[in-house]
Structures are given as structure tokens and as C-alpha cells.
Amino acid sequence: MTEPLGAGMFAGCAAHGPSPIRFGGKWTAKIIRCLEGGRRRFSELQVPLRGITPKVLTETLRVMERDGLVSRHYHPEIPPRVEYELTPLGRTLLQPMDACCAWAEAHLPAVIDARDAHENGARAAGV
């Protein structure tokens, strides 16, 4: 039998405030990949990020800037030009993301099979 989980198991993490890693952010990892090669304009980011609204892209970039992952460069031209790039801190996420991509490539068929089996089991049970 396994030991019960302790109520303070995350106490060491809580002392540092909220976690900087947002696993639920749909667009953050994709934006990081878009900026991997260097500075990009807002409109350039929208091309590969089909489906993201300008509002959500703006909000995501602001959160990433607040967290120190992205820097924003404003050029006071007519029309104004804004570019975004990964900070050194943001670049530290590239290696863990590579590991996640490698894991997904190796295990995605098993995940899809598990999802299909779960869905078929739920349907068979009438859920």
C-alpha cells in the first residue's frame, strides 16, 4: 500500500509564489517556437498561429512579457512597429520543450490509442 499524500507536499513551492510555468496556456509554447529564430512582428506571429485572435495573442504576449519570457520592442515610426523576441530566460525553455516534443513524437500513438479506447469504453457503457 502506498503512503498517503501529505497536506504540505507543495509547501516548498508555495513559498516562491505562483508557478511561472503555465501548462494550460494553449498558445505560449507555440509563440516560443515562433520566436526561437529571433525578433518577429505581431503580424508575422499571426501567420503560423492560425486560429488565435489578435486579442488572445496580445494578452498572451503581455503575460509572457510580464513573466520575463518575451521582450517587446517599440519603434516610433509611422505606422508604429512593434517586435517581440525571447529573452535569455525565455530561451531557457527551448531545451525542455525539445524534450517534450521528442516525448510526444515517441508516445503520441499510444496516447491516441488510449484516448480511443477510453472513448469506446465510455460509449459502450452508455456514458
Automatic annotation (TrEMBL):
UniProt KW keywords: DNA-binding, Transcription, Transcription regulation
Domain HTH hxlR-type: 13-112
Pfam families: HxlR (PF01638)
Highest taxon in the source lineage: Bacteria
PROSITE patterns in the record: HTH_HXLR
Name listed for the protein in its UniProt record: Winged helix-turn-helix transcriptional regulator
Taxonomic source organism: Sphaerisporangium corydalis
